Amino acid sequence: xxxxxxxxxxxxxxxxxxxxxxxxxxxxxxxxxxxxxxxxxxxxxxxxxxxxxxxxxxxxxxxxxxxxxxxxxxxxxxxxxxxxxxxxxxxxxxxxxxxxxxxxxxxxxxxxxxxxxxxxxxxxxxxxxxxxxxxxxxxxxxxxxxxxxxxxxxxxxxxxxxxxxxxxxxxxxxxxxxxxxxxxxxxxxxxxxxxxxxxxxxxxxxxxxxxxxxxxxxxxxxxxxxxxxxxxxxxxxxxxxxxxxxxxxxxxxxxxxxxxxxxxxxxxxxxxxxx
Length: 275
Hints:
The protein is α+β, with helices and mostly antiparallel strands. It has seven helices and five strands, in the order H-H-E-E-H-H-E-H-H-E-H-E. It folds into two domains: 89 residues; 142 residues, CATH 3.30.1330.60. The protein is rod-shaped. The protein starts with a helix and ends in a 13-residue tail after the last strand.
């Protein structure tokens, strides 16, 4: 038979154990919920930090790109200012050249100063004979030591190619010059046009003005003379465009003149000297 005190203590143990188990069973679900929420919060924080880092990297990249664009913009602005300055200088130069051209057009031009030149007797007789033989194609001015070639017989309208029918006369002129012209003399070929403006796209492309046409025609005659025997180093060319007419007849103003002068006698402009 058991003692009463011992029986009561033995009955309390299972009750305490059961209470502990009940309390543990009630507390465990709440702890897991807390741990889950904490892990979720940490994961969310990590994601937010990664997103923040990504956005900060984008900001840095955008700022770098902005700086590059600003630098490029400064370069473009500098280049634009330089181009604007060059354009202003070019406009100023154009104005200066235009004014110079107008002054030149308005000012009297110096013609070859060969008045009173006496050609060597043999050359004089030869040129007079050529003028008689090729009457209508060339004329001789003994007072100025010049042979005049009529452009309407020399060239087609607006052209600088010498017509074949004039080759013989110019070849004879070259032969006389190369055989009879003294060593200290030279040949000056001077081109003239009338005052009719240059027209036609093809003609303008080759001869933009009567100035060009007059020089190009003089060069064509000079080239034929040198091809026929006149030393090129003893030749020179000039062109006066329409600015030295010899009358109101345009056909007479269209001409090429060939002068025979002593070396150094033609000085339409004095030589420029630096300093």
